[in-house]
Structures
1.
Amino acid sequence: MKKIRFGVIGCGSIANEYHLPALQRVENAQLVWACDLIEERAQKAKEDFGFEKYTLDYHDIFKDESIDAVCIFTKIEMHATLCIEAAAAGKHIFSQKPFAYNIEEGRKIIRAVEAAGVRLTPSFMHSYMDGSIAARKIVEEGIIGEVRHIRMRNATKNPFDTAPSYGGCMMDIGCHGMDLIHTVSGADIEEVFALHLSPRDDTPRQAFGEKADLNGVENTAILNYRLSNGATVFHEIFWTQVAQTNRFEMEIYGTKGVVYLYNPHRSDIVYYGWNLDGHPRKDIHWQAAPVEENFFGYIHHKTFVDDLLNGTYNSKTARDAFVPLQVVEAARRSFETGRIEHVLGI
Ligand SMILES: NC(=O)c1ccc[n+]([C@@H]2O[C@H](COP(=O)([O-])OP(=O)(O)OC[C@H]3O[C@@H](n4cnc5c(N)ncnc54)[C@H](O)[C@@H]3O)[C@@H](O)[C@H]2O)c1
C-alpha cells in the first residue's frame, strides 16, 4: 500500500489538538518528521503520534527526498517562507491559515506552487466538517430552494499574541466563513461593502478581556457581500468572543427553507422548510449524524492524502486560499471609499 510520507513543521496547539490525531488515523499517511524549534515539542509529537524522527531544523525535511508532503502548522509569519521553500523542494503542502498577510505575499506563494507543480491546500477545516457537508448537500439538492441570503458569524477570543495580529480578524477567522460561504452556496463573493471595521479607539483592548493590545488593527468587521448567484450575505467577524457565546453560526435562507448550522464539528445543524402556503414542512426537519462516527478532522486529512495518491482534486486549493485575501482587500477599499467594491481578480 503506497503511503504519503509527511514532515510536520510546527508542533504547537493546533497541531496537537486537531491535525496530528486526525492525520495519525489516515491509513495511507506515514508520519516521518516532526519539527519544532522547541525540542520538547518535537520530541513529544514523535512519541505521541508515532513519527519516525524529529528535528529542530525544517531544512532536514525539505532535503529528505523520501518526503512527499509537508504540513505547515506554524503561525502566519512563517507561512510564506515555508510554503515557497517547500514548493521549491518539490513537496506538496498542507498549510494552516491565514495563508498570507496580504495579496502580494499570497501571489508569491501561488507562483511558487504553480511553478513547482505541487499541491497546496489551506486548512479551511470548517468546509470538511460533517455539518457543513450536510448543509452543502441540502443546498445542492434544492431542498431549500434558491439561496437568497446568508448570515455568517465567526467569533473568537483575540489571538494569544500579536504575531503581528494574524493579518487582522478578517484574515484570521473571517477566512473560514468566506470559504464556507463558497463551499455551501457554490457561489463566489463578487462585491463587498464594509459596514464596519475595528473601532481603532484608544481604549486598551485588555479592558475587553483581550490578552494582547491590538489597537490599530482590525478587531471587528461587519461585511455585506453580493454573491455571483445574486444572494446577499451579512458576515460578522469578531475577536471579542467570550466564553459561552457562539463562535460560529451560519444561516442560509432559501426560497423554500432555512438551514441553521452551528458549531459544525459538533454537528449542530438543523433545517426547516415550508410549503408554498407558508406552513412548516415537518418532514424535513433534520439533524446531522453524530460526529463520533467520524473522528474529528479525519475527512479533512484523508481528502488531501487521497488527492495525492489518486490525482483527484477534492481538497481546497491554493487559489481557494487566495480568495479571503481578495475579499479582505476589497473590504478595506470599501471602508475607505464608503462604496460597494468589486473583488478583484488574482
Ligand atoms: N481553527 C483553526 O483553523 C485554527 C485554530 C488555531 C490556530 N490556527 C492557526 O494555526 C497556526 C498555528 O497556531 P497555534 O496556535 O498552533 O500556534 P503555536 O504557537 O501553538 O504553534 C506553532 C508552533 O510552531 C513552532 N515554530 C515556529 N517557527 C518554527 C520554525 N521555523 N520551525 C519549526 N517550528 C516552528 C513554534 O515553536 C510552535 O510550537 C496559526 O496560523 C493559527 O492561526 C488555526
2.
Amino acid sequence: MATLEILNVTKRFGRKVIAVDDISLEVHDQEFLVLLGPSGCGKTTTMRMVAGLEEVTEGTILIDGVDVTDLPPRKRNISMVFQNYAIWPHMTVFENIAYALRLKHMAKSEIDRIVREVAGMTNIGEYLERLPAQLSGGQQQRVAVARAIAVSPKVFLMDEPLSNLDAKLRVSMRTELKAIHASAKATTVFVTHDQSEAMSIADRIVIMRDGKIIQTGTPEEVYEKSANLFVADFIGTPPTNFFDVTLQKSNGTLHLVNPHFDLSLDAANTARLNGYNKEQLVLGVRPENIVLTSEKDSIMGMTALVVEPQGSHQVIAFKMDEKMVKVVAPSQPKPDMGSTIHLNFSQGTLRFFDPETTFAIGD
Ligand SMILES: Nc1ncnc2c1ncn2[C@@H]1O[C@H](COP(=O)(O)OP(=O)(O)OP(=O)(O)O)[C@@H](O)[C@H]1O
Ligand SMILES: [Mg+2]
C-alpha cells in the first residue's frame, strides 16, 4: 500500500505535441482515484509515465515518497490492467495468475495460497484450470485483475479496463471492481472517458482536458460544484442546461432575465452574485432542478416536445431558442407531448458561470 505523487509533470512528443501539461496530483494510500476526460486529453500518457513505460519530459513522480521518475518499470512495484487485458492464451487461469509470483521465486505453497486468495476476491475460483478461451470476456477481465493484484503492487493502474465489455457487463464489472478494491485496498488509478463509470466507482475524480487538470474532487463535488462550464457539461446525464441571462436589479432584488423567463433570485443567491459586476451570466441548472409546477408558481410555460418514461422517473425535453432543455421529473404526472408545461427552478442548486472566463461564480 502506498501513496503516489505526480509533481509538475509534463510530457511532450516532439516539438508540437504537449500530451500532458504540468499536472500535479496526489493519490492517497488505498484511494480509488479516477482520471476522467475526453479522448486525447492525456490520460494514457499519464498512466504510462507513472508505470515507467514513457519517459517524463519534466517533473517528478514519487511512490511512497521515493522518487521513481528515472526507475525502470519493474523497479516501481506497480501493476497494470489495460484495455486489451492480454492474458496469456496458452496458460490456464492458475498459471496466468501464478506466473509473476514464480518469477519472484516464491515457495509453491505460498503461490498456491495467493492464487486462491485473489481468485476468490475476483470470483474466478472455479475456473483456475481453464484456458482463457474457455472464459467469457468478463471472466477474462477478472483474470487480468487477479493477476495484477496477486503481486501486491504498491500502486494499481487500470486504463479503460472495461471498454471491451458490452454495456451491461461493464456496469456489473465496475461494481465488482469496487468490491475488489474494498478488499484488496490497493492504491488505484483508474482511467475512463465515461463520466457515469467515474462517478460510480471513484473516491475522487480528476477531470482532464487538453493535457491539463481542470478539477479534482469527490463525485459529489464535481457534480454539485463543477468548476467551469466544461465540467458542468461533461459530468451528469442528461447534462446541465445552460441559459444565457442578463442580470437586472429592481428594488434590491436580483433578476436573471432572458426572453423566456424572469427569475427573481432569493437572498442567498443574490448574495452569491454580490461581487459579480458584469451584465451577462450563464445560468446552469441540472435537469432534476427544473421543476414542473402550477402555472401560478411557474416562471415560464413551454411546450413539452418529447416525454421519455424511464420507470423510476421521466425525462421531458423542450426547446428554447433552438437549444434542447431537459428536465428530469418524478414519473407522475406525465404531461402529453405537445402540451404546455409550467416550470420553475430549484433555487438551492443554481450554478452561475462567467461567460468570458467560463469559471463558476459564487461558490
Ligand atoms: N507516441 C506518441 N507520439 C505522439 N503523440 C502522441 C503519442 N502518444 C500520445 N500522443 C498524443 O498525446 C495526446 C494524449 O494521448 P493519450 O493517449 O494520453 O490520450 P487519452 O486521454 O488516453 O485518450 P483516449 O481516451 O482516446 O485513450 C494525444 O493528442 C495523442 O495523439
Ligand atoms: Mg487512452
3.
Amino acid sequence: MTYRMMMRAAAVALALTVSSAGIAAAQTASHGGHGSADSHGSTTSIGQPGKPYEASRTVRISMHENYYEPESVSVSAGETIRFLIKNEGEFVHEFAIATAEMHKSHAPEMMMMVEHGVLLPDRIDQAAAEKMKASMGHGMHDEGNSVLVEPGKSGEVIWRFSEAQDLQFACNVPGHYESGMMGDIKISH
Ligand SMILES: [Cu+2]
C-alpha cells in the first residue's frame, strides 16, 4: 500500500464519520434552493451521450476507495469514448463527466439520495429510488454523463466530447470528491 493510498483510506474513514454532519450542513445550504438543484445546466457544452457504434475506443476505469485508476484520460475534441467502469471497491461509487463547477452543483442531489435512503454505503436501494422519483416527479442521473456503480459491478458511459477544454470525471458520493476521487479529462484539438 502506497502512502497516497493510505492517506485516501484514512480520508474515507473520516468521510464516513462526518457524513451525518455534512448532510445537516447541505440541508441548510440547499434550503429554498431546490430550483437551482433542478437546473443542472445543459450538458451540451461538455458534450452529449454517444452511441456505441460511434465510439472510437473503450477506456477502462477501475474504482477504489477513493480514487480511480487511471486518474487521467486524454481525448480529442469530437471524439466518442466508451468508458467501461468497474467498481473494485467496497462502497458505491459514481463516475460522472463534468466541469468542476457542475460536479459541485451535483453534490446536493447526491446528498438527497442519501437522505432518502436511496444511496447506501455499499448498495443502491432501487425501491427507495422509485419512491423518491415518484415524489419528485422526475428521474435522476438521466443526462447520460454519469453512472453509479455498486461494489463488484460494472457500468458504462458513452460520451461524445465537444470542444477542447478541461473536464473531470468524479465521484459525488458525499465525501468522496473531497477526499480526492476525481480524475482529469484533457480534450485537445
Ligand atoms: Cu466514490
